[in-house]
Specification:
The strands form two sheets. This protein has a three-stranded antiparallel beta sheet with strand order 1-2-3. About 35% of the residues lie in helices and about 20% in strands. It contains five helices and five strands; from the N terminus they run E-H-H-E-E-H-E-H-H-E.
């Protein structure tokens, strides 16, 4: 196995199956000298089965020989709140929004692989910390 020297990392947010050479992907990869069209083809084929409403976080590791690897991550917690939990009740940042503990468990299951822990209790604590930092979210423990 040959190890390559890591030159850097690029973080992007892109919708599945919508990668094209236009900004933000084109300029981010172009200034590092990476093949933009090859990335777009690989990304679009990799995300064929993912729901188009998800805003995916991508981490691209690029190497000194201009090769790269990319890793897909789940959308952030606020995106999950807006699109799934408060979908019918219109999540509003100016009004109080109530979230119950069942929803917190669902978010923890959804995001556990993106956290730096595989302990479910720790992932619940991380989600609770993020929810407490978002204004106008009240947690209802039933």
């Amino acid at each position: 196995m040959i190890f390559k020297k890591l030159s850097g990392k690029i973080k992007l947010k892109v919708y599945p199956r919508k990668a094209n050479p236009a900004p933000p992907i084109g300029p981010a990869l172009g200034q590092k000298g990476l093949n933009i069209l090859d990335f777009c083809k690989k990304f679009n084929s990799e995300t064929l089965l993912i729901d188009q409403n998800f805003l995916l976080s991508i981490q691209i590791n690029y190497y000194s020989d201009k090769s790269y690897d990319f890793f897909l991550k789940n959308p952030d917690i606020k995106f999950y709140l807006k699109n799934y939990i408060f979908k019918n009740s219109n999540f509003n940042e100016k009004e109080n929004n109530i979230i119950n503990f069942d929803n917190i468990l669902n978010i923890s299951k959804f995001k556990i692989f993106d956290f730096n822990t595989l302990n479910f209790y720790s992932s619940i604590k991380i989600v609770l910390g993020v929810l407490k930092s978002i204004k106008n979210i009240n947690i209802f423990y039933n």
